[in-house]
């Protein structure tokens, strides 16, 4: 949805607008979120990057980002629980005197899907994935509000493309839960100039290609730039479909 409004020329159009913008990116790894981080770094944004991946690929990526970003701060704290995420958000939201954009990423892996044995397991898994995203959203949005700054939060929940009814059901449940969280937060901050959006899994496994949806990480990067810019200021409370962001 809305992808017809997001053109390939987004980056060139918002380059001056987002220069030195204060961007938080959480959930970055050596293979996940790379295009998102590079897109904002290439615009000379000031980055606060969170990762728990200390692989050689991530170290190389951090060095690359530092060459193009206006500034960068790297954090490696555990934010896998709601409490830890809230504490981290309080610290990161004060970076550079505040934040303009936050992009939070979480993953449901194939192994986690296979480990689900019943409805209780599914609910617990999705809750564990969304709770940190919700806390990051609330703390960052509250900080934006306190300093009278408009801003945008994009929460990305990714999982492999569904291959059967079971994995499609997991994707559908996860997307519904994400949409409910996004809608609640968007309503909470609507009157304060703070937009809350999401990217969630597309719950189809029949090979259907109908409808507009995100197919890879460059699509997510383009969407993030669009939503962070003036062009995206009318969009809040939306969850954009993603067709198996297994990156």
UniProtKB/TrEMBL annotation:
InterPro entries for this protein: NAD(P)-bd_dom_sf, SDR_fam
A GO term for molecular function: oxidoreductase activity
Keyword entries, A-Z: Oxidoreductase
Record-stated family: Belongs to the short-chain dehydrogenases/reductases (SDR) family.
Name the UniProt record assigns to this protein: 3-oxoacyl-[acyl-carrier protein] reductase
């Amino acid at each position: 949805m809305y992808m017809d409004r997001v053109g390939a020329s987004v980056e060139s159009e918002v380059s001056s607008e987002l220069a030195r913008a204060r961007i938080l990116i959480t959930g970055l790894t050596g293979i996940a979120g790379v295009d998102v981080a590079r897109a904002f770094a290439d615009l000379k944004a000031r980055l606060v990057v969170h990762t728990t991946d200390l692989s050689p690929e991530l170290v190389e990526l951090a060095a690359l980002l530092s060459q193009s970003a206006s500034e960068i701060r790297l954090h490696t704290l555990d934010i896998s629980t709601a409490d830890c995420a809230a504490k981290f958000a309080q610290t990161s939201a004060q970076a550079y005197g505040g934040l303009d954009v936050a992009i939070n990423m979480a993953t449901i892996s194939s192994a986690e899907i296979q480990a689900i044995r019943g409805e209780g397991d599914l609910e617990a898994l999705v809750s564990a994935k969304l709770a940190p995203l919700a806390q990051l959203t609330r703390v960052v949005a509250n900080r934006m509000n306190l300093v009278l700054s408009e801003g945008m939060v994009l929460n990305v929940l990714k999982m492999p493309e569904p291959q059967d009814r079971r994995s499609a059901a997991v994707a559908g449940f996860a997307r519904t839960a994400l949409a409910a969280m996004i809608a609640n937060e968007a309503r909470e901050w609507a009157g304060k100039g703070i937009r809350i959006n999401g990217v969630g899994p597309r719950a189809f496994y029949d090979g259907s290609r109908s409808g507009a949806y995100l197919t890879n990480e460059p699509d997510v990067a383009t969407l993030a730039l669009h939503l962070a810019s003036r062009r995206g200021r009318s969009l809040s409370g939306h969850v954009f479909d993603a067709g198996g962001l297994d990156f």
